[in-house]
Design goal:
single chain, alpha+beta, Thrombin, subunit H, Pdz3 Domain, globular
Length: 476
């Protein structure tokens, strides 16, 4: 090695050492100001935490106790007929969280937190307690709205953020009451947007976060760094009941649309009516994408259109692939359902459609689900096993109300008397009567006619429950 080359090598090594040393100094630099030392989420927490509440519910549950000696001839000989079943009551308590979204005391929480509750107590961050009134329940989005009376006081509340503006990697804060230990704050990032593979409710579209969420956090707030509500914490993925870094929140845009699309009923309770399209669809697979002329397997492949569908009138056809709605990409049917659900009835949306490899745009008006067949609600009476069931004809409006698929046929049970033959048989709201004694059922009149037959000793019922058929044989 020449002296010249050795000199160059020494200089290069010296520069490398100095450069590494400088980098190390920068990485371990002492804070240069008091502001850098005090970087904290505390201001955001102080602003938002007073609007996050604890929710305690009580539910009276009746259980039927079956005697182990029922039907035993030995015991019947000495003690007579033993009652077929006795009922006892027990009180169930549960807890969750909620978010004040209006200063007058309007609170949003998860529907599963208050489902079936007889009494709902809301505890503010300052420990004041209020009895809450249930204003709205929506199983389809797993959201519920409560109202408390602060007697004219304007309570702290959190404004709704546009959840479509959120991005993966954004820092978020989760506030709730995990395991009932008291209000707790955790932080993390948005891990994913538009999670549609969870199948937890009808509008299956979630924000995923690694902010620690545990049982009791349900209904609590997911907060952005500017102190706005980006989601309502709804569920976790867990193997042992604790946090595993997979938490899911209902987007704030769904909260907003739930409030906007709710209507008051006679009893004061509200119900949510969402836009109806009458479009049936399926995901696009990789093999389908090639044959449909798509660059990637995404979108909703239209496989059916209801006769009353506004989409059919607008020019949509079976075989079309919907790839975006109002410029928002549609990955799958759940994403399409979410985009429709977060739009108000009466508005129109622009659909980008691929048809035979060509792109087209269709303007789709969003309407309320029609009741094109009168529901004709009726209570089944008499000696049949259906006695005590209240039934109705199916229509898009009825299907939406009872969370049923629009392609089902039959007659839906909308209520069951708890002391009736139908209840004893195990029939429940949402069951669909498909057949009675070998005859197909198409209307309420069909059921009433079949149930009025006297003197039958055997009955055969075909019930559609959740898409599966149940055959029941009843002997009397």
């Amino acid at each position: 090695m020449t002296r010249h080359m050795l000199f160059i090598l020494i200089i290069a090594l010296s520069v490398g050492i100095v450069g590494h040393s400088a980098h190390a100094q920068i990485a371990r630099q002492v804070p240069s100001s008091q502001a850098q030392v005090q970087l904290s989420y505390a201001p955001i927490v102080k602003k938002t935490a007073p609007a996050v509440v604890n929710i305690y519910t009580q539910k009276l549950v009746r259980q039927r106790v079956i005697s182990p000696f029922m039907g035993d001839p030995f015991f019947q000989h000495f003690f007579g007929a033993i009652p077929q079943g006795m009922s006892r009551q027990r009180l169930e308590n549960s807890l969750g969280s909620g978010v004040i979204v209006k200063p007058e005391g309007v609170i949003v929480t998860s529907n599963h937190v208050i489902d079936g509750a007889d009494e709902i107590t809301v505890v503010l961050s300052d420990r004041r307690e209020f009895q809450a009134t249930l204003v709205l329940t929506d199983e389809g989005s797993d959201l519920a709205v409560l109202k408390i009376n602060p007697k004219g006081e304007l309570l702290p509340f959190i404004e709704l953020e546009d959840s479509d503006a959120a991005e993966v990697g954004d820092i978020v804060i989760a506030i709730g009451n995990p395991f009932g230990v008291g209000q707790t704050v955790t932080s993390g990032i948005i891990s994913a947007m538009a999670r549609t593979s969870l199948d937890m409710n009808d509008v299956n579209y979630y924000i995923q976060t690694d902010a620690a969420i545990n049982p009791g956090n349900s209904g609590g707030a997911l907060i952005t760094m500017d102190g706005r509500l980006i989601g309502i914490n709804a569920a976790i993925y867990t193997k042992d009941g604790g946090n595993m870094g997979l938490g899911f929140a209902v987007p704030s845009n769904m909260v907003r649309s739930t409030l906007e699309n709710s209507i008051a009923e006679d009893g004061g309770r509200k119900t949510v009516v969402r836009p109806w399209t009458g479009i049936g669809g399926q995901p696009v697979t990789s093999d389908m994408a090639k044959s449909l002329g798509l660059a990637s397997p995404m979108g909703l492949l239209v496989n059916s259109l209801h006769e009353a569908s506004p989409a059919k009138k607008a020019g949509l056809k079976v075989g079309d692939v919907i790839v975006s709605l109002n410029g928002k990409p549609i990955q799958d049917p759940s994403a399409f359902a979410y985009r429709v659900a977060t739009t108000s009835i009466g508005k129109s949306v622009d659909l980008d459609v691929v048809r035979k490899g060509q792109h087209e745009r269709i303007k789709l008006p969003l309407i309320s689900p029609p009741e094109n067949t009168p529901r004709d609600e009726a209570l089944v009476k008499g000696q049949s096993p259906l006695s005590g069931a209240k039934i109705a004809n199916l229509s898009p409006a009825v299907a939406a109300q009872y969370r049923l698929s629009e392609d089902v046929v039959g007659v839906v049970i909308v209520a069951v008397d708890p002391d009736s033959a139908a209840a004893e048989l195990g029939l429940a709201k949402g069951d669909i009567i498909v057949g009675v004694n070998g005859k197909d059922i198409g209307s309420v009149k069909d059921v009433l006619a079949a149930a009025s037959v006297q003197g039958r000793r055997g009955w055969r019922l075909v019930i559609n429950r959740g898409g599966g058929l149940i055959n029941m044989m009843i002997r009397r």
